[in-house]
């Protein structure tokens, strides 16, 4: 049994001791999600706290940080990758009712897997304190673990977060120059993405008309082997539809040289999957065959994953749009495109 408590500056996970065992707590000096900057990584630090109702003798106290990755599709397996380990205390006597604080600090790289839970892949991290006690001729081991989430900040957003760079898609035709510009190639969950459609009519022997724009924000998930071969792709998932088209004409608009047509539209993302990570871990299960593995997101109504580029799972997003034109023969002509938009975690708290 464990107790999870939280204050404004520390996160604590404590074991409930038996009569003869010490209470072991892991107290972080930061939040439980680690944000790694490109080329810099991040620090994982805090203290292991020991409290005992009687004098105890330790053989060692260790702290270790490891990734637990489950990859279901292909060859099901669970990997535990140890990234950091340190011995905080060797043989020592600790007196009763005293709090013993053992500090630790790890510098983590920026290339660890991003924490993610999907149907066929799970990547999560554990910080574990292992306390070995000397009790007569026996060594008694007690452990305490704390779940940690890891997120690698994309290189481009680390450089441009203060001045987002617009994303523009260009389409050239004999009868018009068409551009679709998005505010940024990055956006967060529960935010509104905005775009502007601009049509510059060109001289043409055939009259064309602008009829409308439609589209959607789509999510793609691929499961990949270590050699890079894609083993399986989830069906593309509709996240949001293009909405708030302005102006939304009822009648087709003629394309006239010298008269630019400008149309704006939006798409609103639902909440991020990060808000459900705790419940996902409880619901996530595995089986011998992928078809029998329950989707960990079945209980979540509306959500969007953040972009992930792990070894075995890739999650990407795109705004797919279709612009309809009519020609003088009342034939439909379509201009289509897909703008890659990366969904990221909010970084405002990193100031």
What does it look like?
The chain has 351 residues and is mainly beta. Helices cover 4% and strands 56% of the residues. The protein contains 2 helices and 26 strands. The strands form 5 sheets. Strands 4, 6, 7, 8, 10, 11 and 12 form a 7-stranded mixed beta sheet that branches. Strands 17, 18, 19, 21, 23, 24 and 25 form a 7-stranded antiparallel beta sheet that branches. A 5-stranded antiparallel beta sheet has the order 1-2-3-5-9, with no helix packed on it. The radius of gyration is 27 Å and the shape is elongated.
- What would the principal axes of the Cα set say about the shape? elongated
Total count of helical runs of at least 4 residues: 2
Strand content: over 45%
Provide the low-confidence segments as ranges. 1-12, 282-293
Number of strands: 26
The whole-angstrom Rg is 27 Å
Estimated helix fraction: under 10%
Average pLDDT number: 81
End-to-end C-alpha gap: 36 Å
| Major beta sheet summary | 7 strands, mixed
Given the helix and strand composition, which structural class is it? Answer: mainly beta
Helix and strand sequence: EEEEEEEEEEEEHEEEEEEEEEEHEEEE
């Amino acid at each position: 049994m464990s107790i999870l408590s939280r204050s404004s500056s520390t996160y604590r996970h404590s074991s409930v001791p038996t009569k003869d065992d010490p209470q072991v707590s892991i107290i972080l000096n930061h939040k439980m999600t680690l944000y790694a900057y490109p080329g810099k990584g991040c620090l994982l630090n805090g203290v292991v706290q020991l409290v005992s109702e009687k004098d105890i003798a330790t053989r060692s106290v260790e702290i270790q940080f490891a990734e637990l990755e489950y990859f279901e599709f292909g060859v099901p397996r669970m990997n535990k990758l140890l990234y950091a380990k340190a011995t905080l205390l060797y043989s020592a006597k600790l007196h009763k009712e005293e709090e013993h604080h053992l500090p630790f600090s790890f510098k983590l790289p920026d290339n660890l897997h991003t924490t993610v839970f999907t149907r066929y892949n799970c990547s999560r991290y554990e910080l574990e304190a292992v306390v070995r006690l000397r009790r007569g001729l026996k060594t008694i081991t007690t452990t305490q673990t704390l779940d940690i989430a890891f997120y690698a900040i994309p290189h481009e957003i680390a450089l441009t977060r203060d001045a987002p760079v617009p994303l523009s898609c260009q389409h050239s035709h004999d009868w018009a120059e068409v551009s679709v510009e998005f505010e940024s190639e990055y956006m967060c969950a529960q935010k509104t993405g905005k775009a502007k459609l601009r049509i510059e009519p060109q001289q043409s022997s055939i009259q064309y008309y602008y009829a409308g724009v439609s589209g959607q924000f789509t999510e793609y998930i691929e499961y990949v082997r270590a050699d890079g071969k894609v083993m399986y792709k989830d069906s593309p998932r509709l996240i949001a539809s293009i909405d708030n088209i302005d102006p939304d004409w009822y009648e087709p608009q003629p394309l006239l040289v010298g008269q630019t047509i400008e149309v704006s539209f939006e798409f609103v993302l639902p909440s991020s999957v990060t808000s459900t990570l705790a419940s996902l871990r409880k619901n996530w299960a595995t089986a011998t065959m992928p078809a029998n593995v329950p989707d960990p997101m079945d209980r979540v109504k509306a959500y969007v994953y953040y972009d992930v580029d792990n070894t075995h799972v890739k999650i990407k997003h795109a705004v797919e749009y279709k612009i309809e034109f009519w020609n003088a023969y009342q034939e439909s002509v379509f201009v289509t495109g897909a703008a890659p938009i990366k969904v990221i975690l909010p970084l405002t708290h990193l100031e």
